[in-house]
Every structure is written in structure tokens, then in C-alpha cells.
Design brief:
7 helices; 5 strands
């Protein structure tokens, strides 16, 4: 089983370190989501150059999910800023109001991702790595629409420079695959962590 998890870890780490793609869609069943998240946490703990933002909140409705995402982000932002201040260092910049402003979720999510990049340490090798790995996904269509719209906006250089996103797709309802199959800078990974696959890897 350890070989199987090492293969998963290698795939996720390879994506974080590559330079061509911004989004990795990880297709897996609900029961495997926590293992993907745990693997990302392990990569985070061993990584000294990137800033990881990992979330497992359920996607019931995409707009509500985005609000929960912002709440979680602001909570961590506050904790990190308090810690910096306690150690005599400057706090992180204030979270921009536009992130909570009314409007399409894709535009606000883009603002949030861009802001997460702005708090990276100075240097060209740092990345903001987002692990959006919901344990369950009820609104698969809304999730697919959100990321389709997010990646639709062109730009040179691209707005997602130094950003990596790992997004979980429900293997039983592959809406992301249907919407993003021809979208550039999107990579795909089917993580078979079923009991059968684990038994074969022993």
C-alpha cells in the first residue's frame, strides 16, 4: 500500500514543481479524498519554499462553498499575521474587500488566488499552492462552471503565474472532465485508491 501512496505523492509533487500547468484535476471517489488531502499536507510539511492553502469543505452550492473558502482563508491569514506581529515582523497585507464583494464567484476566486500570491516571500521560486479537495461534491455542475470560467480569462503574462491548484473531481460524476477537457494548462490524474488497488500494491 505504501507504494501506492508514494506514487500519489510523486504525481502531486511533480505537478507542484512543473511550470506548464496551473490546475491538476484529481479524479477519485469520496472515500479517497481524505488521502489526497493528507498527501498534500505531507508535501506542505516537507516543503520550505511554497505556501499551501488546503481545504476540504463540502461543495453543496458553489456560492456558499466560496464563502466558506474565504472564511477559512481569512482565519489562517489572521493567525499568520498575529504570529508575524508577535515576532516583531510586519503583518500580511489586509485581505482586499473585493474578495467578499458581490459578483460572479469566478472573479472573486481569481482575486483570492492573486492575493495569496501577493503574500509569498520575495523570490522567483515561491508558489501559492491551493488544494481544493472537498470530501463530498453535491454541486458538480456548479464546481465545473466555476473553474471553466476561472480559466477562461486570457492574459500575458497569465494572471495565475506562480499559482498551482489541485482540484478534486468526483469520479462518479466527472463534470470537470466534460467542461475542461480542451482547456489549456489543465492536467489530469485519476487516483485509484480503492481497496482493490491498495491490495494490489502490497
Amino acid at each position: 500500500m505504501r507504494r501506492l501512496f508514494e506514487a500519489v505523492r510523486k504525481r502531486l509533487l511533480d505537478f507542484v514543481e512543473q511550470r506548464d500547468d496551473v490546475l491538476l484535476v484529481v479524479r477519485c471517489e469520496d472515500g479517497a479524498a481524505s488521502l489526497i488531502l493528507k498527501t498534500l499536507q505531507e508535501i506542505d510539511e516537507s516543503n520550505g519554499s511554497d505556501l499551501f492553502w488546503l481545504f476540504s469543505d463540502e461543495v453543496k452550492r458553489t456560492d456558499q462553498w466560496y464563502g466558506t473558502l474565504v472564511n477559512r482563508f481569512e482565519e489562517r491569514h489572521r493567525l499568520v499575521s498575529d504570529g508575524l506581529e508577535k515576532n516583531g515582523r510586519a503583518r500580511w497585507p489586509t485581505v482586499p474587500a473585493r474578495i467578499r464583494a458581490a459578483g460572479p464567484p469566478a472573479g472573486r476566486l481569481r482575486s483570492l488566488l492573486e492575493f495569496s500570491r501577493s503574500v509569498l516571500p520575495a523570490g522567483n521560486d515561491f508558489r501559492a499552492v491551493w488544494g481544493l479537495v472537498p470530501l463530498t461534491i453535491a454541486d458538480v455542475s456548479g464546481q465545473a462552471s466555476l473553474f471553466e470560467e476561472l480559466l477562461r480569462v486570457p492574459g500575458s503574462p497569465p494572471w495565475y503565474h506562480h499559482i498551482r491548484m489541485v482540484v478534486r473531481e468526483d469520479s462518479a460524476r466527472p463534470a470537470l472532465r466534460e467542461r475542461l477537457a480542451k482547456t489549456p494548462r489543465v492536467a489530469w490524474y485519476e487516483a485509484d485508491l480503492s481497496a482493490g488497488a491498495q491490495e494490489k500494491s502490497t
